[in-house]
Every structure is written in C-alpha cells, then in structure tokens.
Amino acid sequence: MTKAARRKEEGRWAWRLTGFVTLCVYIFMFAPIVATVILSFNASMFGGFPMTGFSLQWYAKLMNNDAVLTAFRTSLWIALVTAAVTTAIGVVTAFALVRFEFRGKQALSTLVILPALVPETILGVGLLVLIKAVDQPRTMLLLVLGHILLAVPYVVLIAQARMMGIRRVYEEAALSLGASRFSSFREITLPLLIPAVVGGALLAFTISFDNTSASLFWRPAGVETMPTQILSMLKISISPEINALGTVMILVTVGIPLIGGLILQSLTRLKRRGEPKEEVR
Questions:
Q1: Which of 80, 158, 198, 271 has its CA 20 to 30 A from that of 204?
Q2: How do residues 160-178 score in pLDDT, each as one tens digit?
Q3: Closest CA to 196 of 254, 151, 168, 156
Q4: CA 30, CA 42: separation in Å to the nearest integer?
C-alpha cells in the first residue's frame, strides 16, 4: 500500500470514528427524552420498562390536576409577556447598536450581552441576595423582569445579525425622499427584520417557559411555574404523570419554535410568489 493510500485509509477511519462518537453523544443526550415520551403512555403506575400496555390515563390526570394547570397558565403568561417585551427592547437596542455611533456604545453592548455570559444559577443567587439586601419582597413583576433580563441578550444578537445584512442605502433612500426616521424604520427596516423578530420572540418564549434555575430563586412564595412544578412533583414521588408532564414540556418548547419557523417560511414563500416577476428582454 502506497503512502497516499495509507493516509486516505487512515482519514476514512478517522471520519468513521468521529461519526461513531458523535452518534454516541446524540444517543446519550436524546435517549432519556425518547424514554420519557414513551413511558408517558405506559399503563402501569410504575414508570419503567417493560411497558404493560398503552394508556392515556396520565394525560387525563394532568388535565384534572389543578396545581399543574395553574403552573402552566403562570408559565404561559410569563413567557408571553417576556417574549413581547424582550422582542421590542431587543430590536430597538440592536438597531441603535448597528446604525448609530454614540458615547458608551461598547459599554452598552457589553452590558446587554453580559447576562448570557453569566451562569443562570449565579445570576439568580446574585439577584436574590440583592433583593434581600434592599428588603424587597419577591413578586411576579420581579420574576418577569428576571426572565426579560435573561432573554434580552439572545434577541439582541439575533436582531444584530439580521441588521448587519440590511443595507443602509434603503433607509437613506427613504430619508432622502422626505420620510422621517421613524417612518423609515417602520416601512423599510422593520419588514426586513421580520425573520429576526419572529425568531427572537420564539427564542425568548422558549427561554422563559423552560427556565428552571432562575425561577427557583425569583418566584414569589406559593407561585409555581411548569419547571418548578415538575421539581416539586419529583420530590414527592416518581410517577408516570411526571413523564406525561415532561412530554408536554417537550412539545411546547420544541414544537412552538418549529411551528413558528414553518409559518414564517410559508409566509416568505407566499410573499415571493406574490411579487411581480421581472420581464426578460
């Protein structure tokens, strides 16, 4: 075997080994999720294999569990408010950081991204200590503000990436024709930012709805979100009802972004079809 052929064979085995290790990592990460979904349909009250039959009784129990329904409504409300406020703040902040030069721009950019660089547990403990230091009771408003703080960096990054791809000449053309700065942003920039707006809103919703560590420190007494409700149920006993609740969480946190992406892709295709085609001369 020649030297070139030997190198080619070694490279082939290296790629095979890389693929095998990657497959093992994916199995290690997603096997528990698949097992949770499968066991949520187990007829037995013992959440384990082998399954004794197929049943939807644990989902029916969830629908009659007042604590779970209350936690779901609380998480949904917090996530919707977080997504709306965070998207508005993130888009405006990204527009200012990309389009304008002002004193303290670098400091503002670092301050906005900082919550994404600090682990949530450390940030949650730090803000809890601050709340206790100023003798401020934990309220729903503080919980929502905390979720907004955690989600803003991601929306800003998504909007900034989109803003970089929008040429400034479109806005300058509108301004030269007499449009105001606000009208130019509303009529020119914002429609071009729609993919980033939708993506940022969905990401902020998912981050807030699925947040566990920060919510444990910031939630008021007696208030449970979906993740904290799951932890509370795990402390009492391990029931197949928790598998059903985990499956619902998976569907919400994964399904909503996927559905949003498909809707956005469909709207983009319809818009392109509706645009007049240029005649070829």
A1: 271
A2: 888 888 777 777 777 777 7
A3: 156
A4: 19
